[in-house]
Amino acid sequence: MIKDYVATRFYLEIDDLDYTPFDALGGRGRMYQLFWDEMNSVIN
Fold first, then answer.
1. Would you list the domain boundaries of the chain?
2. How far is the first Cα of the chain from the last one, in angstroms, to the nearest whole number?
3. Residue 24: what pLDDT?
4. What pTM was estimated for this model as a whole?
5. Nearest-5° angle of CA 41, CA 14, CA 39?
6. How many Å separate Cα 26 from the centre of its chain?
7. Are 30 and 40 spatial neighbours (Cβ–Cβ below 8 Å)?
8. Alpha-carbon dihedral of residues 8, 25, 31, 1, nearest 10 degrees?
């Protein structure tokens, strides 16, 4: 039940990748490396 709630209401912006926990895994730069042109589609 909680998992479903979080999965349907989770919101992420590109700027969020600069903060914990994402920054520990490379943050925005790593996301660009992995997804490049598709990054905005993945975030949205």
1. 2-43
2. 23
3. 92
4. 0.59
5. 30
6. 11
7. no
8. -10
Helix H or strand E encompassing 31: helix 27-35
The three-class DSSP label of residue 40 is helix
pLDDT tens profile 2-44: 677 767 777 788 888 899 988 899 989 998 898 888 877 877 7
- Token pair 């730069």 is found at 29
Residue 1 has pLDDT above 70, yes or no: no
- 17: how many CB neighbours lie within 10 A of its CB? 19
Tokens of 15: 């700027």
d(CA 43, CA 38): 9
